[in-house]
Amino acid sequence: MFVRGLKRKCFDGEEDIEGTLAGIKAIPSYNLQRQSLLDMSLVKLQLCHMLVEPNLCRSVLIANTVRQIQEEMTQDGTWQMINTQSTGQASLDRLVSTDILCRSSREQAEGKHVPGYSTFNKDFAGDQAQDSSETMSTASSVQAPRNLQSNVWEMENPQENKGNFQKSLDQIFETLENKSPNSVEDLFSEVDNSYYDLDTMLTGMMSNTKMGHCDGLETFSSPTTATSNSNCKSDLNELDHIVEILVES
Amino acid sequence: FLGAGGGNDIQWCFSQVKGAVDDDVAEADIISTVEFNHSGELLATGDKGGRVVIFQQEQENKTQSHSRGEYNVYSTFQSHEPEFDYLKSLEIEEKINKIRWLPQKNAAQFLLSTNDKTIKLWKISERDKRPEGYNLKEEDGRYRDPTTVTTLRVPVFRPMDLMVEASPRRIFANAHTYHINSISINSDYETYLSADDLRINLWHLEITDRSFNIVDIKPANMEELTEVITAAEFHPNSCNTFVYSSSKGTIRLCDMRASALCDRHSKLFEEPEDPSNRSFFSEIISSISDVKFSHSGRYMMTRDYLSVKIWDLNMENRPVETYQVHEYLRSKLCSLYENDCIFDKFECCWNGSDRQVIFNRTVTFFLPPLCSIVMTGSYNNFFRMFDRNTKRDITLEASRENNKPRTVLKPRKVCASGKRKKDEISVDSLDFNKKILHTAWHPKENIIAVATTNNLYIFQDKMN
């Protein structure tokens, strides 16, 4: 998704965009947009579980959206994590979020999410500002959410994604059903629990540092190699952001 | 020459605003429901902090016909407290999801208020007299020494300052596993329904330890869950009929005479999807957030994310009218999904039921209900009204900047694309944190209550 501050060139043939999006060189492919929607949805579902008692209607709607994407990707044959970077197809009206809706609400959304998620957002923005290559930036935009997804679901390789994804959806609904501490723990049993431990995050011991750093094309097809990236400056930014959120709350 | 409803368009004027002035909104003050009682004299609001505030309309000065009475605080009470469910280790929010008034039967007023799990029947009564002159007690309540009592007198009632008391008369608990989204009082005035995400229960107002489950859409295997109940309402005249809406944009009408468990609907209202508008967000925006019967019961109105639809109960395959609330958001759905605004649940309401025709200020005729105008909220503190007869619509704003009484509100306009005209607001400038989810229309007059995040605005029509 396009975060404020991104420098991209204008969409061709798009209606007037005032102000913030300075330019968009090429239209990201439908597949990439769909992938990022899928990733965003999975993150939302994950966050649902971190709330005290998830809103069932919202969870169901998001899960249905995920299923729809999954079905379409299965039909397309693109369910195996794609490598293509085709920027051709223009049927974007379905997914394009061309305008930044409301900065204050977005900032607010960042502020109220679990720091991990906000950090992801912030890293994403931070990285994008530095990227010179346009194709790299589109790759990174997909990479960042996938890294998050990898950490969260602890998928070892793309092949397992589908199975784990289905399993995770099922677990979510079981959890919604039971809502007992044990179920929630089961859901997270595969996940590195320290992810949600704010103390560990603050002390920087976290796998947090794995997220959001992309070396673009190199790491595109192997999500887990991102673990080797560490950018001190981004780490500091992350920590600042986390502290900011905690202080505000 | 018609009063409310027909003829000329209504000119809305600011009347009052209630609530804190600061921009810094305390979470507990967020208004979560607004409801007029059956006479319109009382206006209740519920908030996220579990409190109910009731406003009462001042008695009109009959000789002065220039303005209707103002609403002032009548009673405030804590309806629900936060609770902790120890079995699930989950907190139960005290936020008031809905308030519904019972019709008045005696001097006291009764209302039902509900949070996610528990419904309460509250009695609101006035006390303006108190007994004085007890034989055995002093004025302050202490008991007198019996040996000092030498005479016998009858206590008398003496006037006192008006005191309004709210007391919980019934607590209907432990019947909902999921979050309650609706309550609706039956036209028999003896029973009511409560609906959560997966079940609807029928209660008797006098009985708190039992309720009957009348709808259950929970699948045997929760992994198969794809649809939830979003709202439910009893038919205004037919005490055996109710409807419930779903997250897939369908409305089911059920008849309780058909069977004890109304899992099979009598009617299913669903509009076929428009293939040209199909997207990954189609289902989410089709989810119905509110359903309201018209006063006659012939029609019902539903609200989904982008539109208001009017359905004729005799026609199941499509609505008879559709009104676009903020179509300019259709191209922004992805961003609205990202910031969760796409899940906002807007309510809708009909205009008041009675039409009054006043001749020479002395004679009043009451004409049958019209239900010609529908109202619903949007973002940027805008709210919208659609006139079903003239097909005209208007966008107004609830803001403190327009707060001069009897000044007609200026219509607002959102510029979807292209060149923005003067006084128009572009979609990008809309504030999505300022949402109007709850609105209410006085049952008899052209007075409306519009809730922003933490303020309640009251508007009325300009009386000539």
Kindly describe this structure:
Helix content of chain A is 57%, strand content 0%. With 249 residues, chain A is mostly helical. Chain A has a domain at 27-75. Chain A is globular and about 50 Å long. With 464 residues, chain B is mostly beta strands. Chain B has one domain: 7 Propeller (Methylamine Dehydrogenase, Chain H), CATH 2.130.10. Chain B has helices at residues 282-286, 333-338; strands at residues 12-18, 31-36, 42-47, 51-57, 71-78, 83-85, 90-92, 98-101, 109-114, 119-132, 156-172, 182-185, 191-195, 199-204, 207-216, 229-234, 241-246, 251-255, 267-269, 290-293, 299-303, 307-312, 321-324, 348-350, 355-359, 363-367, 373-377, 382-387, 393-397, 413-415, 424-426, 438-441, 447-451, 456-461. In chain B, the strands form ten sheets. Chain B has a four-stranded antiparallel beta sheet, with no helix packed on it. Chain B has a four-stranded antiparallel beta sheet with strand order 2-3-4-5, with no helix packed on it. A four-stranded antiparallel beta sheet of chain B has the order 8-9-10-11, with no helix packed on it. Chains A and B meet through helix 1, helix 2, helix 3 and helix 6 of A and strand 7 and helix 2 of B.
